[in-house]
Amino acid sequence: MTTEPIIATLGELILRLKPPGKLRLRQTAKFEVCHGGAEANVAGSLAQFGLQSRFISALPASELGEQALMSIRANGVDVRHVARLPGRMGIYFLEDGADVRSGCVIYDRQDTAFCALTPDQVDWDSAFDGATWFHVSGITPAISASARDLCEAGMKEAKARGLHISLDLNHRERLWQYGQRATDVMPGLTAYADTLIAGRGDCRACLGFSPEGDGSTNDWYEALSEDVLHRFPNLTRIAVTIRNSSSAECHKWAAHLRTGSGSYFSKTYHLHNVVDRVGTGDAFAAGLIYGLATEMQDEAALQFGAAANALKHTIAGDTNMVTTNEVKALMDSDGTGRLRR
Amino acid sequence: MTTEPIIATLGELILRLKPPGKLRLRQTAKFEVCHGGAEANVAGSLAQFGLQSRFISALPASELGEQALMSIRANGVDVRHVARLPGRMGIYFLEDGADVRSGCVIYDRQDTAFCALTPDQVDWDSAFDGATWFHVSGITPAISASARDLCEAGMKEAKARGLHISLDLNHRERLWQYGQRATDVMPGLTAYADTLIAGRGDCRACLGFSPEGDGSTNDWYEALSEDVLHRFPNLTRIAVTIRNSSSAECHKWAAHLRTGSGSYFSKTYHLHNVVDRVGTGDAFAAGLIYGLATEMQDEAALQFGAAANALKHTIAGDTNMVTTNEVKALMDSDGTGRLRR
Amino acid sequence: MTTEPIIATLGELILRLKPPGKLRLRQTAKFEVCHGGAEANVAGSLAQFGLQSRFISALPASELGEQALMSIRANGVDVRHVARLPGRMGIYFLEDGADVRSGCVIYDRQDTAFCALTPDQVDWDSAFDGATWFHVSGITPAISASARDLCEAGMKEAKARGLHISLDLNHRERLWQYGQRATDVMPGLTAYADTLIAGRGDCRACLGFSPEGDGSTNDWYEALSEDVLHRFPNLTRIAVTIRNSSSAECHKWAAHLRTGSGSYFSKTYHLHNVVDRVGTGDAFAAGLIYGLATEMQDEAALQFGAAANALKHTIAGDTNMVTTNEVKALMDSDGTGRLRR
Amino acid sequence: MTTEPIIATLGELILRLKPPGKLRLRQTAKFEVCHGGAEANVAGSLAQFGLQSRFISALPASELGEQALMSIRANGVDVRHVARLPGRMGIYFLEDGADVRSGCVIYDRQDTAFCALTPDQVDWDSAFDGATWFHVSGITPAISASARDLCEAGMKEAKARGLHISLDLNHRERLWQYGQRATDVMPGLTAYADTLIAGRGDCRACLGFSPEGDGSTNDWYEALSEDVLHRFPNLTRIAVTIRNSSSAECHKWAAHLRTGSGSYFSKTYHLHNVVDRVGTGDAFAAGLIYGLATEMQDEAALQFGAAANALKHTIAGDTNMVTTNEVKALMDSDGTGRLRR
Amino acid sequence: MTTEPIIATLGELILRLKPPGKLRLRQTAKFEVCHGGAEANVAGSLAQFGLQSRFISALPASELGEQALMSIRANGVDVRHVARLPGRMGIYFLEDGADVRSGCVIYDRQDTAFCALTPDQVDWDSAFDGATWFHVSGITPAISASARDLCEAGMKEAKARGLHISLDLNHRERLWQYGQRATDVMPGLTAYADTLIAGRGDCRACLGFSPEGDGSTNDWYEALSEDVLHRFPNLTRIAVTIRNSSSAECHKWAAHLRTGSGSYFSKTYHLHNVVDRVGTGDAFAAGLIYGLATEMQDEAALQFGAAANALKHTIAGDTNMVTTNEVKALMDSDGTGRLRR
Amino acid sequence: MTTEPIIATLGELILRLKPPGKLRLRQTAKFEVCHGGAEANVAGSLAQFGLQSRFISALPASELGEQALMSIRANGVDVRHVARLPGRMGIYFLEDGADVRSGCVIYDRQDTAFCALTPDQVDWDSAFDGATWFHVSGITPAISASARDLCEAGMKEAKARGLHISLDLNHRERLWQYGQRATDVMPGLTAYADTLIAGRGDCRACLGFSPEGDGSTNDWYEALSEDVLHRFPNLTRIAVTIRNSSSAECHKWAAHLRTGSGSYFSKTYHLHNVVDRVGTGDAFAAGLIYGLATEMQDEAALQFGAAANALKHTIAGDTNMVTTNEVKALMDSDGTGRLRR
User: Fold this and answer.
1) I need a labelling partner for C246 at 20 to 30 A (CA). Which of A333, D240, F255, F308 fits?
2) Domain count, chain F
3) pTM to 2 decimal places
């Protein structure tokens, strides 16, 4: 008999402030409010898929913290391990791109309550009770030394309890401001992982290597994944995501998965009217984890993750608000977005 | 001298609730409100074209009924034959699709005031006084047994008074919940019609036949229309609509018309930024009726209907808020949407 | 040592649609969306107070049900005992009053998923596991015969397990449409209760008696409460709410509580800019339950409930989004609404 | 047997642009759109009361004219006598007052399509066919010489056909810009009227006389009304409105009516949360006309008008969107704005 | 001949984020955006009055800084002395109070670009070129040690150039987080000032003394002002503001002014529908400065300031968007907020 | 050493009213407010680029004029030479096109304050003090005879002071209503210019000539520009813009520049999701002027202008809210609109 999968994630949930539509920051008199964060997005998406997911984190003991908590609780995530601490609410400002104009993100995450969270403040026994999977991303160790320590402690504790560990490298150059670079930290964390997820340039930025070239061929991705699995024998699996954009609204997206025994490429999705590009990588991670945790075959899990990612491009906000039925329907269809009535 | 055309339609007007933009139902804190219904949409579009149109229906004797009445009255439709009865306001919830994500409709139309309307509550003499055309659709007989009876009664009364009758099959599988299927009812109603309008799959779903194949060639449509005219000799004309979508926002649309003496295909419109797909079929019906009722040639009427349909894809809400000048301008142009200033 | 209180409530959660601000239904092109229902409001308010609360209910297995579920989950209510069943989503339309103009509610709650919920579909052992208190209101038995049965079954099951039972009579004349009147049903249900809550006219409407007069004196309320406790010896306590309005925005509000040993009147709150009047009774119920369940003295619990009620008048939506600190601060202050900065 | 009353009004319908809520013009990035005009407001209110009303006017032959037409058509007004002419759309900008801050109106009504409408362009036979009452206001003759001529022509045509004529003096000092003052024009028009309506200062401003003093006593109003009826023996009735404000949101309102045989004062309404003050005078006019046209007694008609006026203060927009049942309910109640549910 | 007054202010401009209307932070999906800060508000109000005003400050070199700059530039303030530096954008979250519910402010102003501004980065010669008045408030020295130093440096530089210096004590207990208390710093800064402005409790909190009692009598204020002028002989004038609230929307407001030669109390304004309470003290300061800088008599300047303050209660946002004509009209009127049309 | 460029423009700033999103005028209950005008847009864009720009104009002495002034002042434009005069505020209504549906503009600019501005009311010495460049467009002489005279006077005054003069022909057929045609006026004004900017059809419409053909080849543009330089030897440079649209949202855009010594074509931008097409020509003018005024080479200035134009298509409102860094980044990139984070 299969145990029901329970996935725990650890990371920071931050307030996202975005001008409506395509307005620029300098034009807006309103911000649309939602909340996001790589690992919270994964937990939220998994809960929307119907799995039990838990979020380990800290939020400020203020109304802003309460607002954030309500947001992730609405998604169905178990928030009993979200501490309420002194410190700021992390914020990011998002200006959406439009056609040839690039969007931009302004991070405002210093001195947050999450940075005040120490490993000993987490009740790991309770947080991992019954859990089968632990997911973290390269965002957390990039924020601060304390967050890096917390992330590593979580991976150790999960390892000690036999959970499957997934790590999404998720490189953000501008976040590494506390004196270490990604290549100082991420190889060590990668050594704890079972499943690794990486964007095209993440291995070079975080692990220090990747094949020559620009990632324009399948061969390139296969060479990369082979190299990663070779260098990190603890990994049973690596997924690499492949995005090509021609404008802010037009993207092509696919992913590659390699295990010890196989190498796969997902269907390529052509998206022409992207609603919200943020969180699409997390949507893929959640989809892949869902597939693997519910015992799909590797290739099916990859395809599930890619379809989840494609759908996220159509969902406003950081979290992928879609059901497994919708993901499966897209996998099985021609993706023409017909009206169901 | 030509009589001024007066078109009467019979059907239900319902409240439409839609989250703003591309938000999902589960995300929204607001609904945009409008009103629609296949036959009301046709009446509204005809009124916007400047024709006299009348709507025969019932609405609840509540503020919700009043709100609906104001909506259709604003369009210029004659509402003196809209009864106010006990019963609910019919509702549908619309979640817009986006790119690869399908939109969806949730119908909530049981036990409405319209279902309480019986043929003898309609003053047919007055409703059809001076009228030259009567339009109904397959939505009405799908709602309830009472609505089916009302629809049939209306067709009989119109027939008896020599009105031209158009029927849009407009198949909605999910509406047929009262114990009969479309094929039980629609052939009988089709026998009253002079002009029939059908979507690609409507003839099979409603009348029980259509050519083999998937409707990807003009031949297929010509075979279909020939067969229909053969089986229903009462029909002087059949129009079949042809939609091909590649995403929620990208559609190709054309229509085919066959009469006893000719067979035509409209221009194909390529739409890349669909604003609102709902009601586009009704916009075609209204355009075709406008053309025929104002004595355009068949092919011109078909082209007018197709251009009206194309414009409706750019109009938010159920009803086609465009003028005949705009339709004609599109027919005569290259459809490049230039700014007029 | 005191057991941590766990409160279960049973009832229907419905979709609330309200025009923005003071717009009338016939004027609006938007609806503001929230969710409410007497017992869900109590559960939500208790969760916002930091207590464990559970909601026993059913919602449709549709996107509308999902939307509703997210709403109550956001508040922190345990929703594991909310079934997903076929049937409609219950709706109510709310038009806010303004000054001398009365607001109005249009209920649209027939044939909902909740009406399809039968007592045997609830796992009472699990739903009441560890629970110390069960709350219901007179709304539920007013909806339908099945809802009445469910409510009574819940009370029996709670009684059998030794929970404290509170019943808010909450009379709504327009809901009793299934062939029974409130006086046919409510006395029987009252016989299960330990704590009874009633508005000024509820005892006459639901139980069939009340003192002569119009409720304008404290004596009247004391006579009423004495009579109720006399006639229903199962009751250990009755609270009666006292509202006097001079316009849609100006209300005076207080409450009376009688137990076997004492009779109390709360402070009277004078409200001059009511933001949302709906759910204020539920806010009182939640406040009173909070006080009693956390072992405040009767009079303190009454005052806590009254202050919670006063605050709810300033909160948009059905549920009282305030903390216990805020309630206590109001109890201890002069209620002048100063800016804290 | 009583003839069904049919009321015709003549005037200009203009576009109203207002910043949301209490924002100032210099702050706003949005305008709320509605349409108004003294006589259109009366026609709209009468249609909402269920009477047949007609509007004689002209609008530009542009999309802005169409937008305006839809607005008044939605209310149920017969618009067959609204010409579409060259010329601008009249506009007014409204900045709402707040507490001690005065609101302000910026008129932008030069060279409008309405000013291009000449008496011979109106088909008076058709416009007055079956009509029993004709209503105009002092706004129209204030706009332009052509509008003055049109107004006078309408009164003559109505007189010739035996319609009852009501004239609301409705003085706006800032509108008289074409070389004549109100006292040059209004006495002549008053000589056509049967029923005259005036604000406190209107008789002095338009007719050139009024009692000494500031209108703070009933005696003052009675002296005024007596004098007016004496000087204009054609009048069978005069109503004078009495407003006292203590802030932008707090007003007291009543009205006085004198006929040849009686003198009455309405109930005084105390309003504390005025939603929209514009159009309240028109709401009174419409209410009084409704009462008189449906053969209420004079005093009852006065009370009906006053209650209609009070309700208008709670309705956003220029037109009084209330039913006769609501007016009657307010007349019969204590005006406490209770929620009906 | 009088020199044209030019007023310079120094302080921080921060981003204000507020849920719409009366929504709580935990309920909102939108923030309304504006910018404020005590000294920027004074500069903005003075510019709206038509005076030349300059703002000395620093903003981040990001889109958020640009957005803020556009905001204050729109008001007409000279921003050539606003540096663009590394560091965060200061933020405050505002939850509006409602009736008995208190509003609250969450400050988020650590490590801002303004805190990075050092006295030597300001070109004082240029900033004070032609200036006649320099205004600062107790907010700036409360933010950080660097801001305190900057404030003091500005006062010294202004003193050296013979400018009139006004200081608004503006005490905010929660801002003093860098190790010093207001009483450690403010007496020293007060010694530079010519005009001092204080709220009821500010002298005790900042200067360490005030009369016994609660400020409920004019005598109390006169005793206070006499004591202040006695202890700080450098002061030529002190103004003390007097607010009494009965709810979030109902305030009474007046001010007291004492100079060496006279003692005055302004008219008391009774406000019943406060739109935005934030910045009202700054509006008074700006009004008083306007009056004094344009050589009104002391009492007239006090009355001008009080009327400006009253108007600010009706203006959304931090800055008083009113003209001198409007202030004078209120001073001369009964403040009944009539519609001007 | 290079003088810092200071650019002066002369023209009218008008209020723009646009329904939200793709709504039609006849559907909307809201207008989005911004301000625009060809020369104001150029001044605003230049200020956003960081150059000193001045605007010479007149606005009404009303709140609407104040609102407009705040708008352009926010952008950083020097407004000291904007007079405040009697007269209307100019307005234009904009209905956005969608896909195959054309957008439309309704001008409402008669009798505005700007039309009341006479050359002698401008202090040309002050307005041109230190200025190096003067820009006007063919909009101004099209509005009225007085505006034509003002435009010519400005060109003469600029010429006399040795400023570089640029003229954008900017033909709007519908504006020439005062009795002269563009060809009567524009050749004379062109004779003052140093740099001429023209759309494809502008030379024929304004100057009376252009090559045969439809502008579909580079040769056509080169023939045109050669001819213009030949006929107007005062010109040192002409730029011609090249737009090809396939729908309201899909445009291709490039520009051609010819000087005495060279002929260039910019990169062609393919835009697929145009946000706002209005003001893109002005964005090009501003970009070209920026390049030339800051002493870029001709071809570089052309490319800068073309990239600025491409970015403007992604910016809501009339004015190009982008920085020089963003323009340069687009020039140097592949224009794929990647998210910067």
Assistant:
1) D240
2) 1
3) 0.97
